[in-house]
Each structure stands twice: as C-alpha cells, then as structure tokens.
Protein: Protease B
Amino acid sequence: MLAKTKSLLCAILCAFLIVSCQSESEQVGPENEVSEEALATLEAAGFDVVKFPVFNTDIGYVVENDILISHEQMKNLKEGSQIPAVEHYSTDNLVTGTPRTINIYVSTRFRSQYFQATDVAIARYNAEGLNLVFNRVSSSSNADIVIQPSPWYYGWFGILGSAGFPTASGDPHNQILLTRSYYDNVSDIGALTTTIAHEMGHCIGFRHTDYMDRSYSCGGSTNDEGDGGVGANYIPGTPAGPEADSWMLACSDGTDRPFTSGDQTALDYLY
Structure:
C-alpha cells in the first residue's frame, strides 16, 4: 500500500533531481539493479515501470509500490490486458485446501502496536466466517505468513507495506513487509490495522479495488495496473465502479477502513 501524501512528495522531489526518476529510479533499486529484461517482462505484463520505481529484492520484484512478483511468478508472467470498470478483483491463483488455518508471525523487531494491529486485522477476517481462519503464532518456524520490517527505502518512496500473491500450488504469499519509519510512532493503530489487512488481502489473492484507475485513491494522474500477468478476475456480486473506503484501495488516506459491504461480498465469494 502507498501513502498518498508521501507519493506526491516523492514525485515533487524527483522532478528536481539532476537524474530524473524515469531514467534512474525505475531501473535501479537502492540495493540491486533491475535488468532491462526484467523491466520489459513487467511492462509487457501491464505494470507501470516508468511512473513507479521497481525494486529487485531477494525474493522478487516490488512493483506498483506494494505488489511483490516473485522470481517464480516472473517466469510465468503473461501479457497484460485492459479491464472493465468494475470493482473487486482476484488473482488467478487463490489459496486452496480450504477450510484452512493460516498462521501469521510478527517479527519481534516491531513495537507493540504492530502486534495489536495484527490481532485486530486477524479478528476482522475471522469475524467473516470464511473458510480461511487466521491465527497469530509466536514462532516463524510454523508460520504461513511472516510480517517483517521493510527495507529503509520504502519510507523514502512512501511505501507503507508490500506483499505478493498466492503461489501456483495454492499457498498464501509468505511475507508482508511494513514500513517502521511511518508507523513506529503512531498512537492510533487504525490505519496500521488497515495496511496489515490490505497486505493480507494480497497474500490470499485480492487485487486493488481501484486498479483500473489508481487516481481514485492515489490522486493525480496515474495509470491502471493492467492484468499484470497474475490475473484480474472480477468477483461477481461486488459493486460497479471503485468503492469508497474499501480495504483494498491502492493508496491509504491514513484512516481506518474496516470491511465495507462490497468487501464482505468479495471475501465471502472467494472463501
């Protein structure tokens, strides 16, 4: 998830750099260079590699500011496509083997509010009576999803957190990264709870509800994310058009966003 105000600040700062964002930031991450081949693959899949920086991490590429495409998924990316103007979407891969318990571990490098917010996010999902039950565990060894601090540069680019999508074998994505520089000193855990729930949503197969028009929640002029090669399947019964306050909007406005009725319909349909 992206912080709207920070993304605008980054855009302003980049405009004054001698080397522009377009020529440098989307091609070279702070730690690892992104190859031209990888950029071409991501761009062909529908991701915007010009407006948004691409980061090469140990487990994959972070694109569109909070989506992680694993190295394995990169091998199978297909060309993207335009999408209809409807709301909730899922990826092609979903979590299988339901009913199923998904264990979540929160790194001890975090402060207490991260544990509190994770518990609230878990409670929101479990209150929906899904075929997925979430459970916070005290050891990473038996966790399906591990929540860890993000790299330092997430804060610089206004990225609040990131996560990937389910695997082809039907497991949830196994990692969520959260930006401590943004959340360490918050007193109201509502926005942090929503960010954690949002990244959990990616892990089980939800796309952004406004990915056809990110300007809806991010402001300014932004491109749609396209199919992204991982699927963008409309979830029947959800409202037409982007829904205000959905937990899966692309950008955060800094408020708490519990599940809307449309969100609940989407969750119930998939799980």
